[in-house]
Amino acid sequence: MSYVAPQKYHIKVRLYNEEIAFGKGIAQILELVELHGSLAAAYKEMGMSSSKAWKILQRAEADLGFPLLKSVSGGAHGGGTEVTPEGKELVEKYRQFEAQVQECAANAFASIFR
Amino acid sequence: MSYVAPQKYHIKVRLYNEEIAFGKGIAQILELVELHGSLAAAYKEMGMSSSKAWKILQRAEADLGFPLLKSVSGGAHGGGTEVTPEGKELVEKYRQFEAQVQECAANAFASIFR
Questions:
Q1: Distance (Å, rounded) from C-alpha B79 to C-alpha A95?
Q2: Cβ pair B96, B66 in contact under 8 A
Q3: Inter-residue contact A32 to A47 (CB < 8 Å)
């Protein structure tokens, strides 16, 4: 058995201040909350438990220092949950960051392992 | 509390064929085996258990399809463990890949979050 280059790679991108706080999972939760207007709808679509979703949300808000979600009452949908403007900005920038890192990784992988 | 950009990021880089198999930990084990000529010296320096070290080594070799370590007997050091040529090539390429990804990430983070 001689060297054969691995065929795949995986890159995990996370953001934080003091403790690893914001990654792919919470970004997806926030995107689904924006889509559905409901946290329960978001974590259910991800197959995530309520307690897990709350835990990662609270840990992220504590580390980031601003709220990611807010409750809305009344209105056409009879209330629900929304992503805060700060949360939307963070998700957008996280996705930009992740996309740039993944693009670099694809180029580097091709040049080194192909 | 308004948006404040997170100050730090973390990028995890792993290689595999079928299952996540090769990352920072095993790369460090192999580098320390090269340094010390002993697997025990390597995992002890990392504060890793023997069973954990063997588990990730066996899982990686099974997924990669080539051996990462070989036993050597006799010689000046009275035998020990060496990294195979294939293992050395993989570690070198993993470090190149990781370095390029981290450099991209540093630039992207600075442009998006600073």
A1: 50
A2: no
A3: no
* Å between B83 CA and nearest CA of chain A: 13
Chain A residues contacting B via beta carbons under 8 Å: 1-17, 20-22, 63-67, 85-86, 89-90, 93, 96-97, 100-101, 103-105, 108-109, 112-113
C-alpha pair distances (Å), A79 with each of A16, A50, B50: 31, 19, 54
Residues whose CB is less than 8 angstroms from the CB of residue B111 and which lie 6 or more positions away in sequence, other chains included: none
The beta-carbon neighbor of B66 closest among A1, A14, A93 is A1
B1-57 confidence digits (pLDDT tens): 688 999 999 999 999 999 999 999 999 999 999 999 999 999 999 999 999 999 999
- Pick B3's closest partner by Cβ from A14, A63, A66: A66
A–B CB contacts, 8 A cutoff, strictly below: 134
pTM of the model: 0.91
Select the residue of B6, B10, B104 nearest A64 (Cβ to Cβ). Answer: B6
Return the HEC string of B54-95: HHHHHHHHHHHCCCCEEEECCCCCCCEEEECHHHHHHHHHHH
Q: Find the helix or strand (DSSP H, E) in which A83 lies.
A: strand A80-83
Do A11 and B13 make contact, defined as CB atoms within 8 angstroms?
yes
Kindly give, in sequence order, each residue whose CB lies less than 8 Å from that of residue B51, ignoring residues fewer than 6 positions away: none
